[in-house]
Amino acid sequence: MMGVRIRVAFLTILGTAAGFGHGFAQTGPPSGSDVSFPSIEEMAGWAEEGEAGVERVRSAVLARVTALPSERATIWVQLLSVIEAVDPSVAPVAIRAVGLGIDSQAAAGSELLLNALQAAPVSDRAALLSLAAQIADAGDSALAGEIRDRLLEEHPDAPEATEARLVQAGWYLADGDRPDDGLRLLEELIVGSPQHPLAPEARRLYQANGGRGGSGPGSGAG
């Protein structure tokens, strides 16, 4: 749960719930910087050592998050939130999947996570699906949409589902083929989680796309 709060807080600061996949571009240190980060494989190796190694990974990822501009830190925030949320045994797979995404192998990174779902604890699967969707979004928005659909179908009450509803709604509305589904997801978020940090953005999208004549659900309008 702490990982979800970290991610939501960061995304709220960014002021956007769209374009999460853009965090893959130039994820290393800024050009000309003396900052040195451990490699993906180093961090995966640490995570395989158990909780103490995972703690080293947390520190290394947090160092990236604080050192990089927000648009380049997004994927690392997502990884940090997953590491905070899942069993330590799952962390190496998540780290290597992000590494593939960074190396422009988004489909392979997502597939790695999807293949790991069966062996992962049920309580960790929503977090892994959320990460798989973000990785896929960097290269294949249709695949990302399929993964978010799966997350919402299989784990509708998971903390990650709230963000997935907003992102999926935006995708449906932007695509234009399923606007009713987009508005339905926004209604679910607004009514089901009215105090969530992403609820204001959901209301804005709902009104901008003509939901109930431009009035958000629960707004008091007829």
Structural overview:
It is a single chain. This protein has a single domain (2-29, 37-214), classed as Serine Threonine Protein Phosphatase 5, Tetratricopeptide repeat (Alpha Horseshoe), CATH 1.25.40. Helices cover 65% and strands 0% of the residues. It has helices at 2-14, 40-47, 51-67, 70-85, 91-102, 106-116, 125-137, 141-154, 159-175, 179-192, 199-208. It is elongated.
Q: Helix count?
A: 11
Helix/strand order, N-terminal first: HHHHHHHHHHH
Instruction: Give the total of beta strands.
Output: 0
Annotated CATH topology: Serine Threonine Protein Phosphatase 5, Tetratricopeptide repeat
Molecular shape: elongated
What labels describe this entry?
single chain, 222 residues, mainly alpha, Serine Threonine Protein Phosphatase 5, Tetratricopeptide repeat, 11 helices, 0% strand, disordered N terminus
In short:
This protein is mainly α. The chain has helices spanning about 1-15, 40-45, 50-65, 70-85, 90-100, 105-115, 125-135, 140-155, 160-175, 180-190, 200-210. The protein is built from eleven helices and no strands.
Give the SSE layout.
Blueprint: H1 2-14, H2 40-47, H3 51-67, H4 70-85, H5 91-102, H6 106-116, H7 125-137, H8 141-154, H9 159-175, H10 179-192, H11 199-208
Helix pairs in contact: 1-4, 2-3, 2-5, 3-4, 4-5, 4-7, 5-6, 5-7, 6-7, 7-8, 8-9, 9-10, 10-11
